[in-house]
Every structure is written in structure tokens, then in C-alpha cells.
Amino acid sequence: MATESRTLVILALIANAIIAVIKFIAAAISGSSAMLAEAFHSVADSGNQGFLLRGGAVSRYAADVKHPFGRGKELYFWSFMVAVFLFVGGSVVALLEGWERYRHPEDHGGSLTFNLVVLAVAALFEILIAFRPALKEFNRVRAGRSLVATVRDAKDPALLVVVFEDTAAVLGLFIAATGLVLAEVTEWYQWDGIASMAIGVLLAVVAWVLAFEMKALLVGESASRRTRSLIRSATLAVPEVETIGRLLTMQLSPHEILVTMDVDLRDGLTDHQVESVIDQIEHRVQDVVPDATRIFVELESRQ
Predict the structure, then answer these.
(1) How far apart are the C-alpha atoms of 126 and 129, rounded to whole Å?
(2) Which one of 66, 196, 278, 279 counts the least CB within 10 Å of its CB?
(3) How far is CA 9 from CA 24, 126, 150, 167, in A?
(4) 218, 252 Cβ separation under 8 angstroms
(5) DSSP codes of every residue in 12-24
(6) Contact between residue 202 and residue 71 where contact means Cβ atoms under 8 Å apart
(7) Last residue of a domain, one of 218, 237, 255
(8) Domain span at residue 283?
(9) Residues linked to residue 259 through DSSP beta bridges, in sequence order
(10) Residue 1's pLDDT is what?
(11) What is the CATH number of the domain that holds 283?
(12) Which of residues 169, 203, 218 is at a domain's end?
């Protein structure tokens, strides 16, 4: 896990832990279902940051006999667990609690102002401590690309998880506040339960997107198209290389890429010259793609 991503995760953990305590106290005092759903949401987020920190620590373990390519994919596994925990610990709880409160609505006894103040404080912590730094880093990585393209090409799950979680947290606070206000204004207290269920649906969508992206990385996603193009261009820049056959890449971790390629060299090279060419290929590829930490070059059949 990159230093920037680790810092974002720690900031998010601090913010979510503080916010969870505030929300649970507010939920106990007010009896609001939406507030309780938000509290469980913050607990789920706090646990998720723990998963990410665990994954980041294990992914840095050195390669050994049992794990010859290292354990970088551990970060993807724990990020997948984030999606599972976000769904079970956040979405399902919010949906069940919201449905129960919809069926059995309660008057919160004039606690609207108190709840809104709590949500405002939570939003302040969330935006300033977690969401704003994460969004700034995401926009730097995005570099003008579309949102969909950035998410699809993302190889650092920590950044992706924090951005998605924080976005869901900010939206969840808005949904909770809207439900509380509508319940108070209309005196139809089912709005509180509806807000809780809406938060549950929001968390389910975020969990599904994260699970989908992490699954692709877990099963062996290739490097991005841009990265593959850079590898191909760097290899063809070596004068002795005639063509490139198969080029296979796999993301081993956010900053480790496995590269295997078949190349055809010009005729008449001695064995010593061939070795020198292979060294050149590896050096040129690593110059343009420093994350290409494992490069295997196989020669096409030579006469």
C-alpha cells in the first residue's frame, strides 16, 4: 500500500471511529432508525479501514518458497472483505432496521434539532478529515480521465475503497437528515424507516461495485491498456527486436506487475548479444513502467 493511501486509510479510520460514537449516542437519545443505520454504517467503515491496514501490512511480506511472487494480492483479498463487511454489517442491518421502523413508526419527541446538529458535526468530521483528502488524491490519480475509466483502471484498492466509502458516508448523512426532516414536517414517521432503507440500498450498491472491482484484481487482472502500450513501445525501441508476439501482464499488487512476452530478434545475433538484448528490454521497460518488477522474456524460435 502506497504511503499516500495508508495515510488516507488512517484518517478515515479516525474520522469513522469518532463519528460512530457520536451517532450511537444520538441514536440512543433520539430513537431514530436512520441515525442508528448511520451509526452501523460508521462501524462498518471503521472495520473496513482495519481490513485495509491489515492487507497493506501483509502485502509487503517478502517472497518465499510458498509465495514466489510475494503476497501483494492479500491487499485485494482484504479489500474484497471490505465489500462483504460493508454489505453485511452496513446494508443488511440498515435495511432490516429501516423495515422494522417503517412497520412500527415512532415519534422522536421533538429531537429533530438535536439529530440535525449531530449529523452536521458528523458531516464536518467526514468531509474535512476523510473525504476531502481522499477526493484530492483520487482527482490527482484520475488526471482528467472519466470517472468510469479511472475506476476500471484503478489498481490501488485502498484509495478506491476510501473514496467510495466516504462518498457513501456523506450521501448517507444527507439521506438521514432528509428522512428526519420529512418525518417531522409531515408527521408521517415512516420517513425515518424509508431513509434507513435508502441508506441500506446505497451501501449495497457501493459494496457491489467494490466487490466487482476487487474480484477482477483477485483473479488476475492485467495491467492497464496504457501500461501495456508503454511496455510494447519500450520493447520495440530496442533496435534488435523485430516483433513482439504474446504480451501478458498481471497485476500482483498496486505497484507490482508481472510481465511475460515473446519477442522475435533479428537474425545473426550471438548468444552473448541475445543476453545483452534481453537485459536492454528489461531495463527499458522498467524505465517507462517502474511497477514492472518481474519481467520474463521468451524468444521466438530462432534458426
Answers:
(1) 6
(2) 66
(3) 22, 13, 19, 14
(4) no
(5) HHHHHHHHHHHHH
(6) no
(7) 218
(8) 225-299
(9) 249, 295
(10) 60
(11) 3.30.70.1350
(12) 218
Angle at 218 (CA atoms; ends 217, 219), nearest 5 degrees? 95
Q: Is there a contact between 149 and 225 (Cβ–Cβ < 8 Å)?
A: no
Is the domain of 51 the same as that of 180? Answer: yes
pTM for this prediction: 0.79
Position 231, amino acid: I
What does the DSSP 8-state code read for residue 239? Answer: T
Here the cell at position 92 is 443488511
Cα–Cα distance measured from residue 23 to residue 39, given in angstroms and rounded to the nearest whole number:
5
What DSSP designation does 126 have? I
Q: What is the pLDDT of residues 148-179, one digit of tens each?
A: 888 888 888 888 888 888 888 889 889 988 98
Distance CA 128, CA 90 (A): 23
Are 136 and 168 members of one domain?
yes
Q: Is the pLDDT of residue 8 over 70?
A: yes
131: how many CB neighbours lie within 10 A of its CB? 22
- State the residue for C-alpha cell 473525504: 131
| Amino acid 260: pLDDT | 95
Reduced to 3 states (helix: H, G, I; strand: E, B; else coil), residue 242 is strand
Contact call for residues 183 and 108 (beta carbons, < 8 A): yes
Provide the CATH number for the domain around residue 49. Answer: 1.20.1510
Pair 75, 253: CB distance under 8 Å: yes
Per-residue CA distances from 249 to 8, 141, 259 (Å): 28, 21, 5
Read out DSSP for 248-302? EEEEEETTEEEEEEEEEEPTT--HHHHHHHHHHHHHHHHHH-TT--EEEEEEPP-
Strands in the chain per DSSP E: 241-253, 256-265, 294-299
Q: How many residues does the chain have?
A: 303
Please, are residues 29 and 21 in contact by the beta-carbon 8 Å criterion? no
